[in-house]
Amino acid sequence: MLLPYLRQLLANGQTHLAVTPEAREVLRKIYKGDISFGEDAARSSTQAQLANAAVTATAIPRPNTQQSVQTPLNIPKPTPQGDTPEEKIASLRELAQHWPAFHSLGSFREHLVFSVGPVQADLMLIGDTPGYHEEQKREPFAGPAGEKLNAILKAMGLAREQVYLTNICKYRPALPGQTRNNRPARPEEVQLSRPFVLSEIEIVQPKVIIALGAAAAHALLENKESFDTMRSQWHEVDATPVRVSHHPSFLLLADKDALAEKRKIWEDMLVVMEKLALPISDKQRTFFLPKS
Fold first, then answer.
1. Is 5 helix (H, G, I), strand (E, B) or coil?
2. pLDDT surpasses 80 at 75
3. pTM of the predicted protein model
4. Is 249:144 a contact under the CB 8 Å cutoff?
5. Exposed, middle or buried: residue 222 (CB in 10 Å: 0-12, 13-18, 19+)?
6. Rounded to whole angstroms, how far apart are CA atoms 197 and 6?
């Protein structure tokens, strides 16, 4: 019922969804057993309520601000200071903390969520937008989605501490009365944040980048191709190879096709492992294949 709808949102690159009071009330009734799924009519009615509430929730009103922020086509990259990569990343983090455009935009929350990981990592993973868990921990890929990512890395023979993790957006987008609910970033929020990611790539100089989710891929690569088209080929940003795959939060919605979806994501990782010349065992090559 609801899972296929949410999975479609994830496939389209939307990893966060604001929930209206109406949607919360429907979910609360389901949890308490006040809504029965014994009849097709009841099931269809509930699905319609949830879908309509979700669609309403995505139409987020813009903050009430006197300033109208334009979306320039060529925003200059920030200029970090320092002699070593570590010093430059620290400087870049400080610049993001006090970047006037972020604060004048009026649509971000106050806590910076920058990056984590070794500054000279071979592999860089880029997500889209910090959510509740990322803001709480102040680093990308936290919470249940972070646990999924850690499992993927472990299957690759890597540890979280060996890769550089960052997001296209450096702050969690704000909502009125916000608690755990999240929303995707708007185009102007991405435009202001992207130069920082380009500076990170320049400093870290990874051998391979993985853009996780369509939203991150579209923002990083600046194209409007379909997710499947982007996923099936190599791309480049500043001469660095880029591969596209699903955000790990995609795996949180398990259904009858969960194994097949895991295998598709794992095939993306195998391609990356080959590019990085990582050892791949026969066992790793058969992960998430149907048992014969």
1. helix
2. no
3. 0.76
4. yes
5. exposed
6. 28
Parallel/antiparallel/unpaired status of strands 208-212 and 240-245: parallel
Separation of alpha carbons 219 and 170, rounded Å = 13
79 belongs to a structural domain: no
pLDDT value at position 72?
A: 43
The rounded distance, in Å, linking the Cα atoms of 151 and 251 is 11
Structural domain contains residue 229: yes
Residue 241 near residue 275, CB atoms below 8 Å: yes
95-120 confidence digits (pLDDT tens): 999 999 998 899 999 999 999 999 99
Q: Are strands 123-127 and 208-212 parallel, antiparallel or unpaired?
A: parallel
Contact 54, 5 (CB under 8 A): yes
Q: Tokens 């709480």 sit at which residue? A: 136
What is the domain extent for residue 107? 85-285
Count CA atoms closer than 13 A to 241's CA, side-chain side. Answer: 14
Q: Is the same domain home to 214 and 167?
A: yes
Does residue 145 sit in the same domain as residue 14?
A: no
